[in-house]
Design brief:
Blueprint: E1 9-12, H1 23-32, H2 40-58, H3 64-70, H4 73-79, H5 83-94, H6 104-111, E2 116-121, H7 125-134, E3 143-146, H8 147-150, H9 157-170, E4 180-184, H10 187-197, E5 200-204, E6 219-221
Parallel strand pairs: 1-2, 1-4, 2-3, 4-5, 5-6
Length: about 230
Amino acid sequence: MVKQKKYRWVLFDADETLFAFRSYQGLKNVLARYNVPFSLDDYARYQQINQPMWLAYQNQEIDVYTLKTARFQTLAKQTGRSPLQLNDELMQEMIHLSPALSGTLPTLQGLHGKVKMGVITNGFTLMQQPRLEVTDTAKFFDLLVISEEVGVSKPSSGIFANAFAQMQKAEPEPLHKADILMVGDSLTSDILGGNNFGIDTCWFNPKQVENATEIKPTFEINALEELLTIV
């Protein structure tokens, strides 16, 4: 068993780590404005386009503009609206359809005052800060790093380097990589990115799926509150 250690900073992924992401309902709400029916089968077809686009963005194969527009080409034709407008409308919906997961508030409350905390996300800028306000979690975070603003996404070391530079500026004493823990639900984004940058990682695995990859987190937890025994 890995020896427990103390950290000065904890970085969290956002979607499906701290917050739910009810994108089916969000898309359904957007399309209802244009009298376009949207079923679960329609959502499955959308995801056949959307998920590979997110993977390509994560792998630095496409930029954020391409991600925003390509995934909405079909729905743009159905609604008569531009892909960018549909993307922004969905993000506005998701501000209110991304509630904190059950363990989020107890964990943040338990860590608050003991460590500094930040969010590092590949999600779009439009919804990030407003979602923190709506969920009453903004008060817990000293840092919000968004791939769209940095220009690189997880698992690139560039986004972690950006976060590290900001954290160093906020510290009165030198900050070392050993002082930081990255927590997230994605092995290929959060854990791989943290590992590559040289910081400890904690895989949030609530469904207890088997790790069939070569990506090895420092810790694995099934409930977010388990962080309180690690940090």
